[in-house]
Prior knowledge:
Layout: E1 4-5, E2 10-14, H1 20-34, H2 47-62, E3 67-73, E4 76-87, E5 92-99, H3 108-122, E6 128-131, H4 138-146, E7 150-161, E8 164-174
Parallel strand pairs: 5-6
Antiparallel strand pairs: 1-2, 2-3, 3-4, 4-5, 6-8, 7-8
Helix pairs in contact: 1-2
Amino acid sequence: MYDRQISEAIKVSLATPNYSEQYFELIDQNRHFWKTWLPWVHEYQNASDCAVYIQQELSKFAQGQSVFEFVFYRNQLAGGLGIFKIDPQDGVGEIGFFLGQEFVGKGIMTLAVRDLVRLGFEYFSLQKIEIRPALDNVKSQRIAKRLEFVEEGTLRRREKVYDRYHDLVVYGLLKEEWPRNIL
């Protein structure tokens, strides 16, 4: 299942502690860019903090509760994504993702999310996958729309990121709606 080459330039890998230094560098370089949307950016002050988080995610992965991947563009760590909330009883998973500023606009995350959706439906046997970007986060909403997720509604003031509350737009995709040939 890991590593997976999803295009000539894009590879995804299970997040493991050996990437901790690269992950910290990516966070540190993108703190200002990400702080509007990601409430966790301030929590990582060094590579050891990143290694602890990655290890926690690996434990959840081993229990079938989540999967956290890194996405590489031309062998450079570009971002991360995962199914961070897997509800095995209802068969629902929620995808989250982030991409370094220098990699935005290249189609990287759309391809990586498409691959993760396939993984969610085939490996985790999910019947539904959700993406919940902030209402103002148009770029993340575009990814959901490109992958033919259906806009299901808005959760008002659902997420606090530092000193600001964000409305979240809920996009859902059912397994039987999944367009395997998209992109």
